[in-house]
Amino acid sequence: MKVRSSVFASFILIFEVIGVALFLRGFFPLPVKSSVASKNKLSELPPEPLAGGKPNTTRLPGPLFKRVVVMLVDALREDFVFGPNGRLYMPYTRHVVEKGSSHSFVAKARPPTVTMPRIKALTTGSIPGFIDVVMNLNSPALAEDNLIWQAKTAGKRIVFYGDDTWVRLFPKHFVEYDGVTSFFVSDYTEVDNNVTRHLDSTLKRDDWDILILHYLGLDHIGHISGPHSSLIQPKLMEMDDILKKIHSALISKEAEGSLPYLLVLCGDHGMSETGSHGGSSEPEVNTPLVLISPAFKRKAGMEKPGIVEQVDLTPTLALGLGLPISQNSVGRIIPGVMEENSVRDQLRFLHLNGHQLSCLLKDSMPDYQKEVGFENYRVAERAHGNWMKLYLEGNTSEVLGNMGKKVLKQYLEALAAMSSALSKQLGKYDMYSMIVGLVFVFQLLLVLLLAMPEALSGAAAVDIPILSALLSLPFYLLCLFLASVHVLVCTSAGNTCFFCSLSWGLVFAAVAFSSAMFCILVSMVARRLPEGPKIQGKSPVQSSGSEWSLSELDVLLLAGTVAHTLSLAASSFVEEEHQTWYFLLSTLCVAVFQDVCRKYFSEKRSDGEEDEEERLLPSKDYLPSAYHKTERNSEKWLALATPPFVLLCCRLLRSLNQTGVQWAHLPDVGHWLNSSEHKTVLSLLAAFCLVLIYLLVQRRCSWVSKVALALGLVGVYSYRAAVGNVMFPWHQSSRNASKGTVEARFVYVFVLGILFSGTKDLLRSQILTADAKLKSRGLWEIYSGLVLLVSLLFRAHNLPVLCCSLLIQTLMTQFIWKKLHYDAAQTTIMHYWFGQAFFYFQESSLCRSRLLLFGSAAVHSRRRLRRPGDRPALPPLHLERLLPQTPVRGHAPAADRCDLSRLQHDGAKSQLRLGVDPTTSDDKGAKQ
């Protein structure tokens, strides 16, 4: 059955999407949620257990704290406070940690370590999944039970200043707020000043119960220049001074006999050695948690911080404020917070926490009664009831105290076990759905590979043996076998598999589809088995009809692509994926060099035969023939030199940036170039690269586009100089006033102009006249406009990557792909390999994968204080979110919300096909 290649491609695409969706449905388990839609209420709390009588009252211990201040410093690593540089970076905080009334912990944040999921974790106590990263671009209002809602419902007055993600997650929850945008990652000054400017007036007032401050400057510095930047210490000292100011104000307002305050210093996530976050490395998941309150014992010296989960803060704050714990919280109360309370209150706190976790366990696990944590909780609850009976009878013996300590220990063990069991629910994958999705994807991929030669031929049609496959006996036998497997899996696994929950009609359709695809594959492979001799250097080689054979290069390209796909099944290979591409690209260059040698040195036609032909020509043509021979010789040597040149360029570019995880902290050429003492070298290198980019791109453009491209590249250099990456050849004292905004807009104007000119020529060639030359010029101008845009978005020290990419593409096109007559499939896969390798040459981590298309920036303006009902002082569209960012060191400003280590990278890297990475302007925008 013959179908057009467009119909065939559409069919493959649709079913590939279905297969990928089925795999993702199994790979991303549903978050642990309570089946009850309502939120916890004080009236629904369980009574105190009491043995041998009626249950005690639903009495709640009184609140532990009158007011709470949460100071959240974005991307605050635990070593910034507890490490050897803690006394230098944050001296006051370190003093309080060592000798003050405080408790210190290392809070473990679960991946994805990005801001929006971390805020959800801190307020709901649940563990958000990776799917929450998608929600990062537009954080919707949080509907599930959370600490902020509970506090507002209880009449607590909440004030918030900082990252406006909180305002979007909790609309109408704050009596006063001022949200600052997180999209302008180059700004690490105003974004914090707009928070601090409210502190003096707020701390003097008594009309609030909870104050939340979310500072973004440290995270922005990390994205710009990494955790070892010279900007880190001043920013941490600024945060230390702010903590001192808050602490001093709380101490001065502390009244005799009233409830104490609680000051919380924490981070939402850490920061990797490259300044990014999103993954599961120790620097990214380890955050400091410092609890300061006069209710705690004063310390005598520095103690090793304990280890807690970040979600443990949620039940701790809830019970500390006298609020119910959120329904979906998997956290457990931090014991040190309540250690100064009576034993009865401590047991009651743990009982409430255990009751909430046991209810969530019942809703999420069918066999919850077999869980060790649930059994331990029931044992502890019964022991608690016996203790309460003795307590109410007035027993004050030592037995009561020892019994109380034992019950406390039982509760803590039960809470730890239940919390761990609930957390592990996120790691239970639906393997059956994943396998079915993988089978679909790989079957369609193999069909696509086998049909590619026909689809790319002049007929643009594909002959698919559908009828023969459906009418064959193996098809029906395979259907019966797969149906039996489905019944066996679903009856043994119950309803835990998504694929088992589908109707039998859909299951039968999937079984029939998979069986048919397998039979089609067998038929296509049998039909294409080679029968004739293989011709060297070409693939596929047509021998008779549709028969073909693979050349050595085809085997390399297919094997390398498949091997890379299989390597993604291991997390270690994902983290160091760049090593795979470096190896494959080097091997490809060697294979291409072999093909070049075979073409020019193993051809059947010898130089003597060529000389004989030349002697038969008239004497007047002798000079042109000699000229053509010289030209062929130069062409031969240039073709021979191209693969070694590509290898040399790739080796040099590998030294430009360290990427991956294991060696990302090591110094590289990018660090050297971005140091202040080598700014002159970087300036000369950037200028040289921009000139070479112009020479490589402008040759097929119209004169108008050539002028626009030249002015645009000058604007690129001016932008990098304005933001301090490179130097101007002349001094301009007011240059820093614009912060690069004017220069960026200047470049964008020329980008749009070149794109408009190319689109106009392209439309004219399609509508008005069938002019191939005009069409080619239009396509080339669109290409040059995109190159100009990427030049702006690339960091200054990465311009050699773009320059080498264009140069290698030009050489490969001129001397390899054309001269060796590689077909479209081979050339496409080579482009893909080069694109992947060049993606990593510029230190692009797997999460830095968003292309900032175009836009301009508005300089930060101070906004007036907003209260509920006020109109925003600025329009809702913040133009500064569209400005490409300004890195000043060797690390790309990976977006705070997109920074999820090693996620979604394949979709973003598909934008990179010519060694051009449009991702390096990551602007922190996709806040978790």
Annotate the secondary structure layout.
Elements: E1 2-4, H1 5-27, E2 67-73, H2 79-82, H3 86-89, H4 91-99, E3 102-108, H5 115-124, H6 147-153, E4 158-163, H7 165-169, E5 176-180, H8 190-196, H9 199-204, E6 210-215, H10 217-225, H11 232-252, E7 261-266, H12 282-285, E8 286-292, E9 306-309, H13 313-320, H14 343-364, H15 372-392, H16 398-424, H17 431-455, E10 461-463, H18 466-470, H19 473-493, H20 504-527, E11 541-542, E12 548-549, H21 552-567, H22 571-575, H23 577-601, H24 607-616, H25 622-654, H26 669-674, H27 679-697, H28 703-722, H29 741-767, H30 772-793, H31 799-817, H32 824-841, H33 905-909
Parallel strand pairs: 2-6, 2-7, 3-9, 4-5, 4-6
Antiparallel strand pairs: 1-10, 3-8, 7-8, 11-12
Helix pairs in contact: 1-17, 14-15, 14-16, 15-16, 17-20, 19-20, 21-23, 21-32, 23-25, 23-32, 25-31, 27-28, 27-31, 28-29, 28-30, 29-30, 31-32
Describe this structure in words.
The chain is α/β, with parallel strands linked by helices and 928 residues long. 52% of the residues lie in helices and 6% in strands. It is built from 33 helices and twelve strands. Strand 11 (541-542) and strand 12 form a beta hairpin. Helix 15 (372-392) packs antiparallel against helix 16 (398-424) and helix 17 packs parallel to helix 20. The model is unreliable at 532-547, 609-622, 733-737 and 845-928 (pLDDT under 50).
